[in-house]
Amino acid sequence: MNQKKRLFFLDAARGAAILLVVLGHIWETDDVIPVLIYSFHVPLFFIISGILLNYTESAKRSWKQILTARLTGLIIPYLFYETVFVLIFGLRSHFDFSSLQANAWDGLMMKPLNVPLWFLICLFFSELILLLLLKLIRKNWLVGCICFLLYIIPFFIKNPEFPADLLLKICSSMGFLALGYFSAGIIQNTSLPVYVILPALAVSAVAAYYNGKTGINKLTFHNPALFTFCAVTGSYSVLFLLKKIRIRILELAGRNTLPILGLHIIVLRILQQILGLNTDSIAGGFAALAAICLLLAPVCVLINRFFPFMAGKPLQKISK
User: Global pTM?
Assistant: First the structure.
């Protein structure tokens, strides 16, 4: 990070976000807990990414550096984890060539069979667009206005088909990415008391429950104002809370978001379909989360040690 001090609360926030993503995929219902999770967990990821873009001064880098970093950090992992998923799916279908070919083509066309990987595609394009705007337009307020206009476009378009839906996801994600970028200084230099953070989370939860289950991936917003309020309030409440409370296990998860994102669906399906674990209940869901974390922990160690590209890291940086 340009030799800057690591912001551990951002690692923890990413860790919290990725664990919430896993829980959201374990509980694929419209019950209260999934509704609350989906109200802010993906926007939190984009806001964190925007903060990091600002903190690392990415807009000052050359385009070669920018593209190299994004291809290494996002696209190579995307292609790897999608390939793994397609091959496993192929194993289940006895490697039917037509199915493998169709799934591989969809993955290359940014319609991943490993559905959570849509996030990497959106982050790749939204970061490039934001950095392009920052390089071309020197007035931050104007960049912010453009990002806001892009952000509200998906609210007015219903049931789009591919690739229009991908473009709308990118527009939606850009709003949160830009918000994180322009609020980076406030996040780093401001502290809120717990008696402010917790009521804000409570109000966000009530609003989320009223608005219903939302999500950028399916372009489901219901009430756009409530969606935005819950996403922003929930995300910043978590960020400010983790500035006050250091949770190292979340930091560890946050430094391994790519392996967890790319592999957790595979482990979850093994637990559900092969081992027969009932994940519908609260206890079953948390048992599945614990099992996924325990099973992926050694995998993350191996990836960081021997296959750093799978964690979005350049090979030359891993020398120990």
Answer: 0.93
